[in-house]
Amino acid sequence: MEFLFNLISGISLGSIYAIIALGYTMVYGIAKMLNFAHGDVIMVGAYICFFATMRFGMPPLAGVLLSMVVCTMLGIIIERLAYKPLRQAPALAVLITAIGMSYFLQNSAQLLWTSSPKVFQSVVGTINGQTGLKLFDGALSVSYVTIVTIIVCVIIMLALVTFVNKTKTGKAMRAVSEDKGAAQLMGINVNTTISLTFAIGSALAAVAGVLLCSAYPTLVPTTGAMPGIKAFTAAVFGGIGSIPGALIGGILLGIIEIFAKAYITTQLSDAIVFAVLIVVLLVKPTGLLGKKVSEKV
Amino acid sequence: MNLKTMNKTTRSNFITYAMVIVAFVVVQAMASTGGISSSLKGQLVPICAYIVMAISLNLTVGVLGELSLGHAGFMSVGAFSGVIAAIYFGQTIENTAVVMILAMAVGGFFAAVVGVLVGVPVLRLSGDYLAIVTLAFGEIIKGIVNNLYVGMDANGLHFCMIKNTLEMEGGKMLLNGPMGLTGIPRIATFTMGFVLIMVCLIVIFNLVNSKSGRAIMALRDNKIAAQSVGINVTSYKLMAFVISAAMAGMAGVLFATNFSTVVASKFDINTSILVLVFVVLGGLGNMRGSIIAATVLTVLPEVLREFSEYRMLVYAIVLIVMMLATNNPTLKNAISNFTGKFKRNSGKGEKVNG
Amino acid sequence: MGNMVPIPSKGYMKESDMGQTPVLEATHLGIEFGGLKAVDDFNITVGRTEIAGLIGPNGAGKTTVFNLLTKVYQPTHGTILLDGKDTHGMNAIQVNKAGIARTFQNIRLFSSLTVEENVKLGMHNHTKYSTLEGILRMPKYWQEEKRTHERALELLNIFDMAHLADHKAGSLPYGAQRRLEIVRALATEPKLLLLDEPAAGMNPSETEELMQNVRKIRDTFQIAILLIEHDMQFVTGICEGIAVLNYGKIIAKGTPQEVINNPEVIRSYLGE
Fold first, then answer.
1. What angle (nearest 5°) sits at the alpha carbon of residue B219, between those of residues B5 and B273?
2. Residue C105 resides in a domain
3. Does C243 share its domain with C125?
4. Chain C partners of A297 at a C-beta cutoff of 8 Å?
């Protein structure tokens, strides 16, 4: 039963990683850049939802929507101001800019909202005064947050796969990620498509932020940093650029982390997660579902 | 040697040496006459440590051309192994300079060993993957040191992981897991820091202007061409990476022996990124720039104490603006038109110089 | 041009090279990319001091042949004998040490380094001091740096480029970059030099000069040269033997005269 409990917790945490990883993987696929600031967009999303619901008494769902809108705009602005001017620049320059952006968001949050932790109240309410389901005569209790997280992740994943494969805009996104030049010649507006990708990724980050803080209620300006890094790890793990890869990578990472905490040691769980990433990359340098790209000579 | 007959690189290197020596003499003179504040005096050794961190990271990022986000991990390995060595040797050796040299040797050695362990797998990757894996390694090192317990008694050193299960006859704890190292002998001096900077500079400049350094830069410029002229990509990548790690380890020893306690979380991703900021602002491959950036950015927050809460925010903005200004064609042209002939020889500093 | 002597099934060989081990003997060489045969059953023999040409329409697989010979790609079929030695299992670095040097169709210089440094990098494996001797500036370092410096200028002088030694390779004009690549390749002391479109982008007078220089290189260093080129004047003017490649297969081999009169070659170039 303990195993089952850990497995469900792992899948739930993994679902959050997967939603964040989607943002990384889509942006990487299309702009070929590691958007280091993505984790901090999560944090902004959580703060917005916190203030909307706790301070201004908005209903949870409205809070989530507001947070998604703000994060979407934030994502587009970040892309326009910091990344777009560097489209032809070396990868190192773009990565350093993204790191700078991450620091900028964290420190702005610290100045705006101080570094004292906020206690985030779960957006998932109670049913009959219960915060979760009791299964097997109470031997296994699963919180509603856990269940909602997994369901939201599945819905997002299905919606995204449909969007990318079936709609015209989705196809444009795939075209841009294959070959920007050719896509432009086919009449696709590359800049709009890239902005749209950032918008989707950031909206998902807001959702992830709210879910993350519903499960782990301490909210500080650095809340997004570690999950961000781990979700990127998950994206790399699954094969960066691949949407199903982000799902598989995220969930596996969540399970590994929870199991490491439960059966090995809490203190070393992060180290174990990163060690697994390294092993995967050594065996398969492009991740589980990644494509091999070789340089033309 | 005559300054005029030297080539441009050699001259530039000598200017850097001269700059460091002059700065050392001036600061030393001011310190002895009480010309600098005590808070700044306390910063002298950390500044030296950060300078060594910056020039060693510049070897990886600027000369080899691979981004490392885990440089603080090597500093950590050096700091902890070096301090334990310093305490151990300090029992029998009186002369602190000798203890320091031994501690640096140990710290540098262990950092180099970890450099090899990390480098062999990591350097098979490149670009963003390499960056993220160095970050992962940095976090792993932090996690391990955070859970390491080291004690010392009459029978020598004792180690254990995760839980303190050391059985010692008397003796004392040196490294106490997340509590870190306590009771560090504060043997680091400004002079030692200066010597370490000079040694690292000489090693880097001499390396870069030898066949091995050229091979390392050739990898950065064009890996396939480098292979086509028979250059072993992996071994030269590893060489640059390990030398860089060893220097970071020594910087760690210098840094840690300036304080009485040190914890593993000091050497986290934020420190790695801080050092990266020095390197980027100073110019990739530009050692003199790294030295200046590390000094200015360490001193500045002390001077502007009242703005200290904005420090990291300012760093972030400067980092972004700097990248945009040096890499966006439109902005770059605008700036070069503005500054005109003043900027003729600086720019990106692709090639390594002082 | 030496007299060409027919050899069984492999075209011709220069009379003066007969009786010596050919510098290159590739047989049944082939590579597949996901089922597609980019090069199939490729055979070539290059004599010790021969200048040989490899021609064919765009996309015929010429550069792929170079990539196979230099082990940028590992061939899926066939054998490559370099100076009689099988290069099976060697990587790009070992092949270079064994004696093949090359230039690239899309120039690959160490563009942030100086011209002299580029040439010195060609001499990398012939520069005899260790990393430690370099860092400690031992006498060996100074000796070897002096020797390689002089040698680099000597090699650059083949193309009258010694005065450019301190310029950054990336700042050179296109033609000079192509020539620098040849010098860098020569600096590795090869037995066989592969030139991938050396005359691309050059005007007729530059091309003429290049032809003379390629011959000069062969005569001075007594090495074999295999080159890919589209400029037929260049190829027929300089090559002693020519192989024609189309769709990854050799369709003709022989002296320049034979090849340009071969109906199948004409067909492959002009279309059906």
1. 95
2. no
3. no
4. 63, 67, 72, 104
- What CA–CA distance (Å, rounded) separates A83 from A104? 14
Q: Hey, are the CB atoms on A103 and B127 less than 8 Å from each other?
A: no
Examine the fold and report which residue of C189, C214, C230 is the final residue of a domain before the chain moves on.
Answer: C189
Which pTM does this prediction carry?
A: 0.86
**pLDDT per position as a tens digit, B18-67:** 999 999 999 888 888 877 887 788 889 999 999 999 999 999 999 998 88
pLDDT, tens only, B70-89: 999 999 999 999 999 998 88
Residue pLDDT, tens place only, A263-272: 887 778 888 8
Its domain, for residue C221, covers 1-99+190-272
The answer to whether position C88 is within a domain reads: yes
Distance from A96 to chain C by nearest Cα, in Å? Answer: 21
C81 lies within 8 A of chain B by CB: no
Rounded CA separation B50/B275 (Å):
7
Mutate to test the interface with A, among B128, B176, B219 (most CBs of A within 10 A): B128
Q: Interface partners of B (3+ CB pairs, < 8 Å)? A: A, C
CATH code, B66? 1.10.3470
Encode pLDDT of C144-194 as tens digits. 999 999 999 999 998 899 999 999 999 999 889 999 999 999 999 999 999
Shortest distance between the Cα of A212 and any Cα of chain B, in A, equals 21
Query: Residue A22 domain-assigned?
Result: yes
Number of independent structural domains in chain C: 2
In chain A, the number of structural domains is 1
Q: Which of C96, C110, C186 to mutate to test the interface with B (most CBs of B within 10 A)?
A: C110
Please answer whether residues C236 and C51 qualify as being in contact, where contact means their C-beta atoms are separated by less than 8 angstroms: no
3-class DSSP state for residue B96? Answer: helix
Tell me the C-alpha distance between B200 and B181, whole Å: 26
pLDDT band with cut points at 50, 70 and 90 for residue B346: very low
CB of C129 within 8 Å of any CB in chain B? Answer: yes
Contact A277 B136 (CB under 8 A): yes
Round to the nearest angstrom and report the end-to-end CA distance of chain A: 56
The residues, any chain, with a CB within 8 Å of residue A64's CB and separated by 6 or more, are A49, A123, A206, A207, A210
Res. B344 pLDDT band, cuts 50 70 90: very low
Asked if residue C199 and residue C141 are part of one domain, the reply reads no
Query: End of a domain among C158, C189, C220?
Result: C189
Judge: B211–C122 Cβ closer than 8 Å, yes or no: no
Q: Identify whether C106 is part of a domain.
A: no
Sorted by sequence, the CB contacts under 8 Å of residue C133 that are 6+ apart come out as: C140, C141
Tell me, yes or no, whether C156 and C219 share the same domain: no
A296 found inside a domain: no
The domain that holds A28 is classified in CATH as: 1.10.3470
* Per-residue pLDDT at B189 exceeds 60: yes
What was the ipTM of the complex prediction? 0.88
Q: What is the pLDDT of residue C12?
A: 59
